[in-house]
Amino acid sequence: MAQPMIMRLARHKGSSLRNFSGLLQIITHPGSACSEGHTTGRALSTAAIGGGHQCYHKRDVDLTPKVDRHLLFDTHTLVTRLETNGFTPEQAECVTLCLIEIMNSTLEKNQKELVSKLQQEIMMQQLMAHMSSIRKDMVILEKSEFSMLRNENDKLKGQVEQLKKTLKDDISKLKSGIALDINLEKSQALRKRNQTWRKELL
Question: Is the pLDDT assigned to residue 33 strictly greater than 60?
């Protein structure tokens, strides 16, 4: 069941793949190419494919890796395994190119939606810097508020002391006035009593 589906996919998305051997060498995992025999095998009879099957149209695939893009699989091994399991060279090459396109689109989407470790570290550093700045602002605000409260408290203390002094002076003046009034009343009462006593003697 799998082979007919792949064949239909190959008919719709195939290509002449004349330069497929060069493409394989570009995206092949480093170290997989060892000898001339392997390099010849990687060509996969590309000339015969290009000349005998005109139904496969060329499909441009951007295989230029970006700075942080990596294709971590051996395309030559994949093509060889597909051929071993019954795929024709054209089908194996087409499936490989489809996988490359899928991986490239997936990597591009991930690069747009996800952040790298470096970006995450930069964001963490920025966040820590903001937190440190906020902490410093809070300390400064706390100190300034404490200073304002202390100044206000000192001001209130001064006002209370001034009020106490004023009240003490008022009380002292009131006492002096009351004592003076009492003395005047006493002197008047004594004078009246003396006058009354003199009248009685006469």
Answer: no
